[in-house]
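Lab notes, practical 5.
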Amino acid sequence: MICAFIAEHRARFGVASICRVLSEHGCKIAPRTFYAWLSRPPCARALWDMTITEVLAGYYEPDEQGRRKPESLYGATKMWAHLQRQGIGVARCTVERLMRANGWRGVTRHKKVRTTIADPAAARAADLVKRKFRVPAPNMLLVADFTYVRLASGAFVYTAFAIDAYAGRIVGWTCSASKEDRFVRQAIRHAAQLRSNEGNPLLGNTIHHSDAGSQYTSVRFGETLSLSGLVASIGSVGDAFDNALAETTIGLYKTEAVRKDSPLRRGPLHRLADVELLTADWVKLSARAACVKNKSCRTSGRAAKIGRSASAAS
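Output from the prediction step:
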């Protein structure tokens, strides 16, 4: 560290002068020590840091249109997971250290606006999850929630998600200009269809967990769950922790996709189709991070060399 300091300032003050001042203040170092350090070849860690820094820097360079790349949204943990999926076997602490040293940070979230409006007259299913969102296999637990997206005109579009708790993967989503329960039912149908197309259909014992919003307690939504092979589970009113996994997904969606400075946005959101396209791009991006949690999804990549996924709303 001392030698690096001398190297940084030697053009202005000279090596001998810096060494003399440092020695006078109790940090004894001779010029020959600095020159020995300067001529020493970089160690393996330094070379690896340079390689990873070069890879990381590529994600923070603008694309051909001058826009930020989607990966620039990632914090250290997500960036580490992304590199793992690319086949780059780097330690998470290394990614954290290099991002911190270069001033690279992930996007931070804003305060969440309450959208859950319970229907006091509706019957509610019991909470079968009890905040235990870790499951050993896919198709055991789906969590759901929806949020709003404000258009340039001031109108709202509502986006609903269904997430498989096993890997945090979004398996169903839909956008709607109406807040009626049709759009949350459509997200469930999309999830059931996707699982069927993948050869892993919902078999009738999959738990569907949501908050106590009126859309999720309606009779028609309950019928959709039964027809899709799902068992209803509903958390308490006003407690975000009861549906924490879905709340997290909603927060990431608003932060990584909806914000005006998001690299996924192509401009102002004027109509429903703009939100659908934005959501499809974000779901594709989020699937990469979710895939890392399942080792079978990981792909071999550059480790040896260097040392729309959901259906559109109908």
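Observations recorded by the TA: Strands lie at 141-150, 156-164, 169-176, 206-210, 230-234. Residues 2-39 form one domain.
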